[in-house]
Amino acid sequence: MATQALNRSSRATVKMVGTTCPIVFKTRTPGYHFCGYYDVSPLDATGVRLLTHRVKEFMRMPKPDDVVELGWWDITTGHYQPIAETRAYNWQQGSKLQWLGPDFASRVIFNDREDGQFVARIVDVATGATRTLDTPIYTVHPNGRSAVCTNFERSYFSRPSYSYSGVVNRYWDVPLHPEDGLVRLDLETGARDQIISTLEMAEHQPLSSMSGAPHYLEHAMYNGDGSRFVFLHRWRLPSGATYDRAFTAADDGSGLHLLLDSGLFSHCGWRTPNELTAWATPPNLTGALRRSGRLTKTVLKRLLPLYRRLLSPQNRLRKAITGANYLHLTDRGGGRRVLAPGVAWPGDGHCTWNPVDRRWMITDSYEDEASFRWLLLYDHHEKKVREVARFFSPPRAAGTGFRCDLHPRWDRQGKRIIVDSMHEGEARQVYVLDVSEMLNDGA
């Protein structure tokens, strides 16, 4: 990872490592573009058509009257084709726009708002034929026939940066709602069933810090074969921080397994149907403090503002205090370990494993002291990390709901990486990087 740091004068450029990783495509004006979250590849099965959101403004939070265009780019010719519009999006995850399985080439699915409620739409990209489902989707099964859905109306109160504007339903504005939970949606019939209840999670091995706290379920993610999914049960502590527990479950909600209960579990990525990697903390003193409602109120509530002010997410002392690292976890009682003990990661990032060989993991970082986000490639065989690039990130967007995380995603062939970035004069665009030579160098 020994690469030269960029000067702040290079704000409109991206630092590349040698010439082995060219940018082979980027979106262009009119408009600004972004893909969405890191767990969904925006390129279709052919590796040619790139899905994006197109907006006119981006350095602000979404507004109820915003209309966002959805379309795809031919990355070989630069042709752009609009598909639809949406009124339900956020900057971190977009509208959950994605190619729908099992072919990942003929249909797209995304969320929208209609008649005062959030919905999901499935569009045939060749004919424009559209079906509307009365439940917005979150994570879609690889076979394209079902999805696990979170409660976006509740997210307005629990996680504003990950919610949609335009619907404010006070019905969900309570610490723990008996009807809240994860829903399994049949994408063919529209039938929906609640498979995991938030109340059930709060009653599962309860901790004293749960008492009176707002609870919510989020960040559901299917594994590669769709047999299980991971999700987070979170509740708000008196200090303002959250306590995180990670669970896995079968597609129908059965086989519930508490994967990690240490208080901090951030971004994760499945490596195999039974293994995943996550930025998290192992059980330690920091987690023990967060588990206790009394200690949280008396100790962490006083220390957290100072901790946040003095220590950035990339600060080594902060990582040492929390013990945060990339942990490799095996589902259903298989244990956990530090992924790469010898690697000094810059901090929390959005990790995704190569879909073809599972040898390589791509991840990123938040801003360092010079306002650069790092793009990193980890070789699981050699237990080494290579820096792919550093992208300047405008300081005035840092820490906001409209920040631009890189959210690196693989193409389906495992040769290219797609990122969102604002390094070129704060013009938010999407970039496709070819990392095939870097992979060959490590072979």
Features:
443 residues, mainly beta, 4-stranded antiparallel β-sheet, 29 strands, 37% strand, globular
3D architecture notes:
This protein has 443 residues and is mainly beta. It contains six helices and 29 strands. The strands form seven sheets. A five-stranded antiparallel sheet has the order 1-26-25-24-23, with no helix packed on it. Strands 2-29-28-27 form a four-stranded antiparallel sheet, with no helix packed on it. The protein is globular, with a radius of gyration of 21 Å. Mean pLDDT is 90; it is low at 1-13.
Percent range for β-strand residues: 35-45%
Approximately how much helix is present in the residues? 10-25%
End-to-end gap: 18 Å
Low-confidence stretches: 1-13
Global morphology: globular
How much is the radius of gyration in Å? Answer: 21 Å
Query: What's the count of strands?
Result: 29
Query: Number of helical runs?
Result: 6
User: What would the average pLDDT be, to the nearest integer?
Assistant: 90
Task: Give me the side-by-side strand order of the main sheet.
Answer: 1-26-25-24-23
Structural class, judged by helices and strands? Answer: mainly beta
- What does the main sheet amount to? 5 strands, antiparallel
How would the blueprint of this fold be written?
Layout: E1 14-16, E2 23-26, E3 32-34, E4 49-55, E5 68-74, E6 80-86, E7 98-99, E8 107-114, E9 117-124, E10 130-133, E11 139-140, E12 146-149, H1 152-158, E13 181-186, E14 192-197, H2 198-202, E15 215-222, E16 228-236, E17 242-250, E18 257-263, E19 265-272, E20 275-280, H3 285-291, H4 293-310, H5 316-322, E21 325-330, E22 336-338, E23 352-353, E24 360-364, E25 372-379, E26 384-392, E27 409-410, E28 416-421, E29 429-434, H6 436-442
Antiparallel strand pairs: 1-26, 2-29, 3-4, 4-5, 5-6, 7-8, 8-9, 9-10, 11-12, 12-13, 13-14, 15-16, 16-17, 17-18, 19-20, 20-21, 21-22, 23-24, 24-25, 25-26, 27-28, 28-29
